[in-house]
Amino acid sequence: MRRRPGLSVRLKLTLSYAGFLAVAGALLLAVVWVFILRYVPDKDQGLLGISPNRYLLVHTFAPAAAVAMAFLLVFGLVGGWLLAGRMLAPLTRITDAARLAGQGSLSHRIHLEGRRDEFRELADAFDTMLEELESHVAEQRRFAANASHELRTPLAITQALLDVARKDPTHDPGELVARLQAVNARAIGLTEALLLLSRSDRGTFTRESVDLSLVAEEAAETLLPLAERRGITLDVTGGPAPTSGSAELLLRMVTNLVQNAVVHNLPAGGTVTVHTETVHTESRGGTSVLRVENTGRPVPPELLPTLTEPFQRGAERVRAGEPGEHPGVGLGLAIVHSVVRAHDGTLELAARPGGGLLVTVRLPTP
């Protein structure tokens, strides 16, 4: 974007420096006149016939004062121009970095040297912003690529099934409809998960009072048939855990955690424990805590940071799937992390010593 015609900041500073210097020189000459020359006698022979009189001093002093004022003005302009350029040099580097960022280059950093003054703090803050922005853009691009791949998969499967049915008229239509229905259900689930993830990231929801203990009981009641089919014992313990937020998003968060704990469990005889409580501390005040703990195979520590990333299914975790069940889209814990972040909370994942996972969600109380 081109700047409108006008004086630059450097020229304004230069004129300001020169103007102040000229005013200071004029004040100094005024002081000389008021406190020195006015007391010199104005006589033809001067004081006692030896000292010069005021007329001679004024005519001798005036040309020298004019030369001095002209020198001060030129010195102020030149010195002010150089000084302003030196002072604004960091701002020029910041402007160049901002221009590069506006053109799409987010990898450039200013790395301003020198002592920590206002320009250094501004440059460091700008570098931090660029780093976070680059990370966010890379994450969004990776998410878009993964989402495109995941959405393309059911469409490709549908197209393949239709091609087979068209080339083979004797193909069982009932089997085709069942497979198309399963693929379509997976595509719908993926689309709804992406929409929910986008909504929680934007934080566009109405806050209301929510009790996590009631939400946990509702999620456990919904998933109890799934747990029973898999031979998993599902328990809900603890007391009230009030917080403020979206009841729908918080229910989806707890449901995802409990479903994840049931699915990634032992093939049989596993347990899932959901616990809610309110913790009061002097530093943070009241905090509502939700813990979801499940048995299962040991989880490698290096796998924990990747579990909340979108489309990361945890290849080394055991999913006790049922026949004909698709492996999921890898958005369960990503949605949980997004919902927790939108509610100003924290999410902690820890591997249990005996196998399985312990997930702790902390949300502020109203």
Describe the protein in words.
The protein has 366 residues and is of the alpha+beta class. It contains seven helices and seven strands, in the order ααααβαββαββαββ. The strands form two sheets. The chain has a five-stranded mixed sheet with strand order 2-4-5-7-6. Strands 1-3 form a two-stranded antiparallel ribbon. The longest helix has 50 residues. It is elongated and about 130 Å long.
Overall residue-averaged pLDDT value: 80
How would you sum up the major sheet?
5 strands, mixed
Approximate shape: elongated
- Total count of strands: 7
Order of helices and strands: HHHHEHEEHEEHEE
Low-confidence stretches: 315-327
Helix share bin: 55-70%
Placed side by side, the strands forming the largest sheet appear as 2-4-5-7-6
Radius of gyration based on Cα positions:
38 Å
Proportion in β-strands: 5-15%
Structural class: alpha+beta
Q: How many helices does DSSP assign?
A: 7
Please give the alpha-carbon distance between the first and last residues.
46 Å
